[in-house]
Design a protein that fits this description.
Rossmann fold, 9 helices
Length: 290
Amino acid sequence: MVGVVGASGSGKSTLLNVLGGLIRPTGGRVFVNGRRLFKLSVSQLDRYRREEVGFVWQQGSRNLIPYLDAQENVEYPLLLAGQSGGKARQKAEHLLEMVGLSERRNHQIGSLSGGEQQRIAIAIALANDPSLLLADEPTGELDSATAAQIYEMFKQFNRELGLTTLIVSHDPGIARHVDRVIAIRDGKLASETVRRERPSHIPTDQPHDEHFEELIVLDSAGRLQIPKAQREELQIGRRVTLEVVPEGVLIKPVPDEEDRPKRDKPNKRDLPQKNAKSRLQQWATKWIRK
């Protein structure tokens, strides 16, 4: 269960759409479950999206059909996959029970709360037994208490169904709900935050904050991104030096050209005056005297 965070425009949703087979990347390679995704034909990609991937979007309009009730919304992808009406109805009832909405199955979408609509969206995403669940800001329009319930539901299905789950979010606090968090900056993986086990010296009966560690990610070319806060604190500009020390690698900032002290320009009064005149000036002076 992985969270992906980053500022607007950093590439989070693009990554989600690429993994879901919704858009083709302009470069690079994408492997999902050992397969090179975009070597698949159009029909194979359709089958991949229908059978192996479940989607949950932030807006209810992208998850649900408003003129169908809750159960009909869950039945719809099952019928599209070729299941009979009886089997689709039976499985839809089971899925609604899994998300705690069996008593609301005959309600219209407009009469349900935002949290209930997202639960139905999760049931729809699970309808065809996917191996990968992709959620794009699934709690963006929910209050914190309801969002926590949705995250708990994701964790439950991750454990019980072995469902790989990727959640895109603006909220760095998502680290409390997932196994690790990947941060994207400018379309590149910049850092990874992982949850660490409780240190052995902390007694289990004492309250303490969860222990997280942020790791900087090196790309295939050996490049890394230093977080903005550290760059500003250490006044790191465009260039640094690397030094191997016993503890590892030391990165030292090098002042940019504009930050270096500039040599004072000499005052014109201090410059030696030129006595020599140009040929034109000398000729003009002689002509005036004559």
